[in-house]
Amino acid sequence: MDPDLNRYILLNEGKGLVPGYPQSMVNILGKSNIAAVYGSSHKHIRGSLLSLVGPPAIRDLLLPNIDKYMRFFLLNWDGKTIDIQTKTVEMAFFAFFKQILEDESSTIYESFKAEFHKILVGAFTLPINIPGTSYYQGMQGRRSIERLLMQIMEERRASGSQNDMLDRILRDEENNHNLIDEEIIDQIITILYSSFETVSTTSMMAIKYLHDNPRALQELREEHLAIRRRKKEEEPIIWDDYKKSMSFTRAVIFETSRLACVVCGMMRKIASDMDLNGFVFPKGWKVYLFTRETNFNPFLYPEPFTFNPWRWLQNKSLESHKYCLFFGGGSRLCPGKELGIVQISVFLHYFLTKYRWEEVGEHEILKFPRVEAPRGIYKMLAVSDRRPIAELWWPAAELQWPSDVSPAADGWRGCGRTSFMELVLKVHVSVDSPPPYALFYKQTIGLFLINQWFKERKKQEVVGPFRSKQMI
Ligand code: HEM
């Protein structure tokens, strides 16, 4: 949790602090996925990815598409009670799928979605490859997506070009990255995996915080209405709108990422015995850089539990502060950072300028180990606002939300109080099969983990402090 040490680890991959994501994730996302490779392979793949999702690509190719699909996606919510969690999940998947495989049929879209869901569930599990486990299903999902992509790539090669991301990887005209098929498949799965949950969760939480903070909602809405007033209804959002007229939107997105802790940390592996802050970390050990603590550092963020987007405007250097690690750091700084922010901004733009909404029923949002509304009950009644744009604003009185849903009340849930064992059991023992399998696996895996834990403790007592100055 030490912010300086976290930063040191992120900046020193070259000294043997390499990515250390779980085996299940490496197997399911693929051995050449960007988060599993390092050194020259990492540089090579990262170069290819940046040319696909970096700011020039967003400005010229991706933003017009995001605009088109976001308008389409937000049609017809009027008068309906929607589950905002389900909707933001669909929004993120739909928009990224369309960037990658624009003209593929709805049948391909539906199969992709179903198989991708298995990948999501399986990526952080114990790699036990027997029917019924989430890992097994994740591997099945990966294989199906592999088959689908191979087939699409063959068709594309035979029939000439389209202009989506897959096609640009296949052509790779300007950049000469020339990825082989296996690398292409791994990168596509990784782009979807890395973008989808971060973008959907940040969008959902932004809506929640805006709910709870009418003043922020009103200011954000005014920012977007001002953009709309300059445009005809059918005119899309362009790069200049995003760069020059959405500063409060960016602040809302950063404040949401901070308070909701959409990414809690990053994982690294020690390539050879290493002394870090006076502790010897033996080769092969995994290090979890727990960065979410820093999000609540009162010196960096006064009144850290308050949703205060204005702090990002008052202190412009906060975004590049060395402890601000929402998007990682060093050579693995998120290559999709700008794309993610653009997508959430365009989503908010159309959501705020099209609809008013209110909460329906009770809701519960968990923050740890991942941010989610576990029963999907965070529902909203969206009402299309048909008044002329000039009149569109909400009197603050309309927007008094219950005080018991303040960010301070739920912002800290579980954090720091979840024991390691509890966490391991929660994260890994998510077996999706019906009883009696589920119970059997849960018990077996639970016993296995407890046994491992006792063994580990015993080892520490016998081996002592790992030849170090202090015991880890
Ligand atoms: C709000 C949105 C996002 C957040 C908070 C976020 C966060 C992060 C973080 C913290 C890392 C560092 C991981 C590490 O060091 O191990 C990362 C890496 C990465 N992100 Fe994002 N991300 C977001 C959106 C996206 C999008 C839209 C894409 C899609 C293009 C993307 C693709 C990636 C990839 C490929 C990596 C691995 C980079 C590497 O290993 O060099 N992310 N992201």
UniProtKB/TrEMBL annotation:
Q: Keyword annotations for this protein?
A: Heme, Iron, Membrane, Metal-binding, Monooxygenase, Oxidoreductase, Transmembrane, Transmembrane helix
The keyword Metal-binding is annotated on this UniProt entry: yes
Membrane topology term: Single-pass membrane protein
Location of this chain's protein in the cell: Membrane
User: Can you tell me which family this protein belongs to?
Assistant: Belongs to the cytochrome P450 family.
Give the record's GO biological process terms. Answer: brassinosteroid biosynthetic process; brassinosteroid homeostasis; sterol metabolic process
Citing just one GO molecular function, the answer is: monooxygenase activity
**Where do the annotations place heme binding?**
C334
Please report the name of this protein according to its UniProt entry: Cytochrome P450 85A
